[in-house]
Design goal:
The complex is a heterodimer of chains A (473) and B (47). In chain A, 81% of the residues lie in helices and 0% in strands. Chain A has helices at 9-33, 38-43, 50-61, 64-77, 79-86, 89-105, 112-120, 122-155, 159-208, 210-220, 230-249, 251-259, 262-292, 303-352, 358-379, 387-398, 402-410, 416-436, 442-460, 468-471. In chain A, helix 7 packs antiparallel against helix 8 (122-155). The longest helix of chain A is centred in the middle third of the chain and has 50 residues, at 159-208. The termini of chain A are far apart. With 47 residues, chain B is mainly α. Chain B has one helix at 12-42. The longest helix of chain B is centred in the middle third of the chain and has 31 residues, at 12-42. The chains are: A mainly alpha (473), B mainly alpha (47). The interface between A and B is large, with 49 and 32 residues.
Chain lengths: 473, 47
């Protein structure tokens, strides 16, 4: 696909092996130091501090899409593309008050499924599990495909070799170390991403200057500086709502709530969200530099790696490799650990083996990590669709969960029947909008329909939920 | 590329603010997280 790779394959192999050995060694070390209970494995002992909690939220939300697709929308839509992508930080920021509420009303729970089951009953729980598992599969596929495409584009690796290596390494260290390995490696990965990204941006803009970049954009690409770009505004709204749907429902974020100390939960979501917002702004700014400098971009989602390699030569290509490798592994490990947590708790323990011991739940979670790694490889085996199109498709589903979860956390009267109808009708309308209107409208309409159904149903048939039921998990 | 129907171009100062604000924010958040980590590590409160 790429006849002249940006990074020499020998250097790429060296970096890949070095970081893989480091992550796996740390995973094994943390796994041995951790306790032996299911909570130790699934939730890192429920005692994570502010620094690690903030870093793991930030690193998990910096996905392969943030480092490849955010510069792409900056390049194609300009400032509103950057803002629009940055609005995905709203998911983390707006979840902060919900997170502390969750921690207080159900301190002993393990998953987002626990909340939905106890709050709304088993039917809503079943619908919720379908939605979250479809979304998780889509998310895993995008990261698996992103890994294959990255190594192929950067260093000429075969797509499947790259994909297998990145998924394999993430699976192995998550298997050995559980959530503790995920959080620990996420801290190192987030620091790598932030420091290297800052170095690239500072060197780039100090070489060319913001004034010169602005002048070239204003002359040749004025639409990129347009603050009233309709497509950009629509994109921004959809991204904000989509991110709320992703964060509010998914167990990646709920498991971080249960894994962190109560005193740090609120602040870690705020700090993680603020830190994350800077990433698409900076990568988008680098993409605008490429546009202003008229750098030939044969494949638009490679604008960030191409510009960095052009700017800093092979050192730049190495930095990009490390940034994107860290982004992919930090997201994949979080998905594997939190989905294993969800399946071990909600499916294995609550559906299949209610009498299972703590040790059996822990063993089941480890088997599920391996199973998920294998499923991700199979689903990513062929490059089937655009990564971003796939994510927008799942946005139609997850946006329908925003209001049932938010209402359910604060309103005693929130209706269980309203919740299930809101999720189903919101998803249906969102999918119809995805197919017949535009993918960008899917999350928007799904969230709107779900909000109205939930509010009207609750108004007509209010319930009187006892919050103490959540605490007695 | 056809001209968009409404063009409200960001002034140079706004562009500089966005770009430099992003970079400064990134550096500041990196240092903040590292500082919190050091403090928590000294107190044995990382996890």
């Amino acid at each position: 696909m790429n006849s002249s790779p940006l990074l020499d394959p020998g250097i790429a192999w060296f970096l890949l092996v070095a970081f893989s050995v480091l992550w796996i060694a740390l995973g094994i070390w943390w796994g041995r130091r951790g306790g032996s209970s299911a909570d130790d494995y699934l939730l890192a002992g429920r005692n994570i501090g502010l620094a690690l909690s903030t870093a793991t939220l930030m690193a998990s939300w910096v996905t392969g899409n943030t480092t490849l697709a955010a510069p792409e929308v900056g390049y194609t839509l300009g400032l509103w593309g950057m803002f629009g992508y940055a609005l995905a930080g709203l998911g983390l920021l707006l979840f902060a008050p919900l997170a502390i509420r969750i921690k207080r009303v159900m301190p002993h729970a393990r998953t987002s499924g626990d909340f939905v089951r106890m709050r709304y009953g088993r039917l809503t729980w079943a619908v919720f599990l379908v939605i979250t598992l479809v979304y998780t599969a889509g998310f895993l596929i995008t990261q698996g495909m992103g890994a294959g495409l990255l190594l192929q584009s950067l260093s000429g690796f075969d797509y499947r070799v790259g994909m297998l290596l990145v998924i394999g390494v993430s699976t192995v260290y998550t298997l050995f170390g559980g959530m503790k390995a995920v959080v620990g490696t996420d801290f190192i990965q987030s620091m790598l991403i932030m420091v290297l990204l800052a170095v690239v941006a500072v060197l780039g803009y100090s070489r060319f200057g913001t004034g010169a970049i602005y002048a070239q954009l204003a002359e040749n690409h004025p639409s990129r500086l347009n603050l009233l770009l309709p497509a950009g505004l629509l994109f921004a709204w959809n991204t904000g709502l989509f991110s709320m749907g992703e964060v509010f429902h998914n167990n990646i974020w709920w498991s971080r709530v249960f894994a962190s100390r109560e005193s740090v939960v609120f602040r870690s979501f705020i700090l993680g969200g603020v830190a994350w917002v800077t990433v698409p702004i900076v990568t988008g700014s680098i993409a605008l530099m490429a546009l202003a400098r008229d750098l030939p971009i044969p494949q638009v989602n490679m604008v960030f790696p191409l510009m960095t390699a052009r700017l800093l030569g092979s050192a730049g290509a190495m930095m990009v490799f490390i940034i994107i490798f860290a982004s992919l592994t930090s997201t994949l490990d979080s998905l594997l650990a939190s989905t294993a947590d969800l399946l071990a708790e909600d499916v294995y323990l609550k559906m299949l083996r209610p009498q299972a011991t703590d040790e059996q739940v822990r063993r089941a979670a480890r088997r599920i990590v391996v199973l998920l790694g294998g499923v991700t490889v199979l689903l990513s085996w062929s490059y089937i669709t655009s990564m971003y199109q796939l994510l927008l498709f799942t946005g139609a589903l997850v946006a329908s969960t925003i209001w049932p979860i938010a209402y359910g956390l604060y309103w005693k009267s929130a209706s269980r029947h309203g919740a299930v109808v809101a999720m189903v009708s919101g998803s249906a309308v969102g999918l119809a909008a995805y197919v017949w209107i535009a993918p960008y409208c899917a999350a928007l309409l799904s969230a709107a329909v779900s909000a109205v159904v939930m509010a009207v149903w609750t108004h007509l048939a209010p319930e009187d939920f006892d919050w103490r039921r959540l605490a007695h998990h | 590329m056809p001209s968009p129907p409404f063009l409200f171009t960001a002034p140079p100062a706004a562009f500089t603010l966005i770009v430099k604000g992003g970079i400064i924010g990134l550096v500041a958040m990196t240092l903040l997280i590292l500082a919190i980590w050091v403090v928590e590590m000294r107190r044995g409160r990382t996890w």
